[in-house]
Structures are given as C-alpha cells and as structure tokens.
Design a protein that fits this description.
- The longest helix is centred in the first third of the chain and has 16 residues.
- By secondary structure, the chain is an alpha/beta fold.
- The radius of gyration is 19 Å and the shape is globular.
- Helix 5 packs across helix 10.
Length: 286
C-alpha cells in the first residue's frame, strides 16, 4: 500500500498543503476546527511524517537552501529573482535561515517560502552574486512604500467576491494611470494558473510580466470579506508591477515588502485599519 503523504491529507481535508503542514506542526494561525479535522484525518489514514524532510534541520547553521522544480528558459517578470534576493537580504539582517522552494514542503524547523517555478540559470547566477556581495546601502521600508503608494493604489475595505474581479480592478487602475500596458492582466492570470500567489495568513501577492510594466508601482488592497484565492482565503492583496529598470532599487523594495508582510502583527493591523491615515501610520511605525 502506498505511503500516505501530506498531499493526501490536503486532498481529503479540502485544504492546501501549507494548511496541513501548519496544522500538524502546531501553528497558531490555523482555525482550531480545521486543525482538529486534519489531525483526525491523519490518524485515520495512519499518516507518518517524512523522516527525510524532518532531518533537513540537522545542525547546519546559516544555510540558504534553494530548491527548484522545472527550470524554464526565462522568467519574464523578473519577480522571482527580486523576491529571492530580497528575502536573502532580510535573512541576513535578522539572522535566520529559510528554505525557498517551488513545491510545498512539510517542514517545521524553519520557514518555507513557496515561489513560482519560473526561474532560469541566469537568475541562479544573480542569486549567487547576491549571496557573495550583499547590499551596502539600505533604504527604510517606510520611505520606499510611502513613495510608491498613493490614493489610487491604496484601497481599503473593498467589496469583491472573486480573484478575477480583483485582478481586473487592479489592472484597470494601472492602465488608467499609465503604469502598465495591455497584456499585464493576462500575464497575471497566467501566473496564477501556473503558481497561485497566495502566501498564507490571508495574503496574496499577484504580479505580471515585467515587459508590460511602463512604470513600477505597488497596489495594496484590503477586502471587507475574505475571498477564496486558490485554496486559501485572502483579504489582503499586494500587487506588484515591476520592470526592474533599476534592479537594485526593485530588489530592495521587494526585500522591504517581505519584511513588512512577515510580521503577523503588522498584517493584523493592516487588516483592521479602515483609513489611509491609519495605514500610513502603520508603515511609518516600522
């Protein structure tokens, strides 16, 4: 009989692999009823954790593990490189290790970051360069985010019922202000089809291909009620339109965004705030 894996539990429970992993490893951000259901299913199916996955922790220290599934010729958005290098810089500043993977991993020793599979050899080369020579100049999160956001790209407590409507609204705003060209919406939807951008904790970070970006912009949207993004419910959306014309600045901004979203307290405060003033006060307090 085939070994029961975490994917089997996720399918049986009707939730994502990330949720199953968190439930089995005691994370506090999983609904108690969902956690109980997953644990009961695990017991019923005689699920046993993969010893190989758990052994990854070992005694290695300050190790960046880069796990890739299915390298492709080109990642046109440039986002993957920026995200990886940004997270690497954040890890240096906060002295912790993490795993980056294109597949979901049930591993409870260190954070696991799920990224898009669109990574090429040139991106890997650039990542190695970042590892060898980290940035000497730092820009504060508040300066970068405050200068990137404006009244049209900070949308609080919006009322939308599905992901496609949200993406279309974002695209309309970007097009109206000349930030992107035709094709950006289609590239966002294709990205979602290949690798949904939900990040857990009610957050999604959609993005499109860089060739359709005329001027870099970030849009932040919160929803009155969570919507199902792929398998997880989402009520905070941070859409990135990056062309990487200034790669160093783009990388720093993505690093700042990562530091911003990794704080559960910050995400909670953003979720609760109802005015632009309150949001900017959150950013300024970082």
């Amino acid at each position: 009989m085939a070994r029961v894996g975490i994917r089997d539990l996720a399918k049986e429970a009707g939730v994502s692999i990330t949720t199953v992993s968190k439930a089995l490893n005691g994370y506090s951000d999983v609904n108690p009823e969902t956690k109980r259901k997953i644990q009961e299913i695990a017991q019923k199916l005689n699920y046993m954790p993969d010893a190989n996955a758990r052994s990854l922790g070992g005694k290695a220290q300050k190790t960046l593990a880069f796990l890739v599934s299915g390298l492709v010729e080109k990642d046109e958005s440039g986002f993957v490189f920026g995200l990886i290098s940004g997270m690497y810089q954040a890890s240096l500043e906060h002295d912790f290790d993490f795993i980056i993977s294109t597949v979901e991993i049930a591993y409870d020793k260190k954070p696991v970051i799920l990224i898009s599979p669109l990574v090429d050899e040139y991106d890997v080369h650039k990542i190695n360069q970042i590892c060898a020579d980290t940035s000497k100049h730092k820009e504060s999160v508040k300066n970068l985010l405050l200068e990137t956001l404006d009244k049209e790209t900070l949308l609080l407590k919006q009322d939308y019922e599905d992901k496609d409507t949200v993406l279309e609204k974002i695209h309309t705003i970007f097009m109206r202000n000349g930030y992107v060209s035709e094709g950006f919406l289609a590239s966002m939807k294709e990205r979602e089809r290949m690798a949904p951008t939900e990040m857990g904790n009610g957050l999604a970070i959609p993005h499109g291909i860089s060739k359709y970006v005329k001027k870099e912009k970030i849009l932040v949207m919160t929803l009155k009620k969570p919507i199902v993004w792929d398998k997880e419910k989402v009520d905070i959306i941070i859409c990135l339109a990056f062309n990487f014309a200034d790669k160093e600045r783009s990388r720093k901004l993505i690093s700042n965004i990562y530091q911003f979203i990794k704080s559960k307290d910050t995400i909670h405060r953003v979720r609760e705030c109802t005015t632009e003033k309150a949001f900017y006060e959150i950013v300024r307090s970082l």
